[in-house]
Amino acid sequence: MSLSGKMSTEVRIHASAAKWFNFFSSQLHHIQNIAERIHCTKLHQGHDWHASDSVKHWSYTIDGKVVTSQERIESVDEQNKRIIFKLFGEDIEKQFKVFNLIFKATDKNDGVACIKWTIEYERKSEDAEPPYGYIEFCNKCVKDIDAHLLQAEELNESYKIN
């Protein structure tokens, strides 16, 4: 059995891909107030949440357990609305040598948008489970964030001057 793998999930969303990408590229520090399973986020190293040399500390729930990790942005592709996050340290380090979480927002031809999460990982041993719980976590966070983005959009519409 291979210790390396890749898994992904794609979720239809109501808000546009541009709004999603904007949230993840410039407003991610608000996620702890939006996503139910994210308990705490804080800047661990650096002074800009969205700089590639900054390290953030995360506390979140996976498979019913509170876990912690650190994260840094590996790359941002604005044109393709794609961001690669590297997770490491703490609970991630116990099971994985490599753990990359890839976010991609896409507007489809039929007017629908979707978020695709891909996890690239390398387990430390065959005893370590593949990160199935992270796929479920991503799906739940997409629902929470999409509801927030839609609510913010509706609020902005109600304040527009005609």
From TrEMBL:
Family: Belongs to the MLP family.
Descriptive protein name: MLP-like protein 43
Pfam family, one: Bet_v_1
Domain Bet v I/Major latex protein span(s) in chain numbering: 2-152
BP-aspect Gene Ontology terms: defense response
Species in which this protein is naturally found: Cajanus cajan
